[in-house]
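User: Please predict the structure of the protein below. I'd like the answer in structure-token form so I can feed it into my own downstream comparison script.

Assistant: Understood. Taking the following sequence of 341 residues as input:
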Amino acid sequence: MSRSKAIQYYIAARLLLAPLMVWTIVTLVFLLLRATPGDPADAILGNRAPEASKEALRESLGLNKPLWLQYLAYLGQLLSLNLGTSVTSQGQSVWEIITQHFPATAELTFYSMVVAMAIGVTIGILSASRPNTAIDVGGRLFGIITYSLPIFWVGMLFQLIFAVQLRWFPLGTRFPINQTPPNGLTGIYTLDSLFSGNLGQFFTAAYYLILPCFTLGLLLSGIFERMVRVNLRQTLQADYVEAARARGIPERRILLAHALKNALIPVITVFGLTFAALLGGAVLTEVTFSWPGLGNRLYQAIDVRDYPTVQGIMVFFGAIVVVVSILIDLINAYIDPRIRY
């Protein structure tokens, strides 16, 4: 079977499996929510609410029905692409919540990944090209430390230093509350301000992104540093690299034009999955920095047992991860002819 034919079969198989993967996520979220201790009526209305009000809420959520009937009703709702209505947002649909909060998450994710790749790949290249030196040891320590530090602790520490004490960056918002944010189709402030030609709004939005994006990107960079260092070290020992050295090609050109390209192939997979996971809600980062993204909204919904919102957001997250994982496989197959499916 030819390689192109094999890839086509692989794509078809992944597309057929995608609904099964989403169904698995839906089922797990549904069951785990119901297994969580506590009554949603108490969490939403409070312990002092009249019992009649609590019973009415349980009835509206279908919680009085048997579990299997609740499950079938929810699956039928999903098949019609209806994610439900939030219990705590004054009748707002879950789709509206997603479209309202997801742009903030997407913006935070994109710029954080840019920071992570810039720092991680740079340090990884320096470490791999200078093995067993102080730079290499420092790069390895950097990768271990940044990978192991918890985001909530570093986030609070950076806010305390750079926002509270030094007052270099703002705290707890996405845009100044006394200014009108950019208004556009995407909801991504940096893009919308550029599309409208308002550079003042662009620089303001970028300024508010610096601290959370740098914090998240710095901690993620350790993953890419370790991946780049290990793969680049292995690639620099390959036969074709030795042959290039024997032909007198400068080491810098060998590193950047030949070895790095092949060493980055495994990094693409990690990049894609990390990007998908962050798009699925950088919950700890958003909560730590009070960033009004979808991860923060999910945290609030879990706190008050807002079943429709939690289920809808998690289904959306799961679909993102499934789609991105398929795209990453296809990109890897395209750029690396050695990959066979």
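That's the full token string. The CA atoms of residues 182 and 239 lie 54 Å apart.
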